[in-house]
Amino acid sequence: MTVSPQRLLLCCLALTLTGCTGPARDAEEAPPTATKPTHGAAGAGDPYYPTQGNGGYDVRGYDVDISYDPHRKHLDGDTTITATATQPLTRFNLDLRGFDVKSVTVNDEQAEFARKHEHELVITPAEPIGKGDDVVTRVRYNGEPTSTDEDEFATVGWLTTSSGGSYALGEPHSASFWYPVNETPRDKATFTLSARVPKDWVAVSIGKQTSRRTKDGWTTYTWEETNPAASYVTTVAIDKFTVERSRLDDGTPVLSAYAPGQEGKRELEARAEEIVEFLSSKFGPYPQRTAGGIYMSDSISFALETQGRPTYASWADLDTVVHEYAHQWHGNSVTIESWSDLCLSECFASYSEWLWAEAKDDTDLDRFYREQVDQLSGDDSFWESKLHEMGAGNEFDGMYGKSKLAMHALRRTIGDDVFDQVLREWPQEHQHGNASWPEFEQFVSERTDVELGEFFDVWFRGDEIPSDEHLYPGTLRP
Ligand code: TRP
Ligand code: ZN
Question: Cα-flanking dihedrals φ and ψ of residue 424, to 5°?
Answer without folding.
Answer: -80, -45
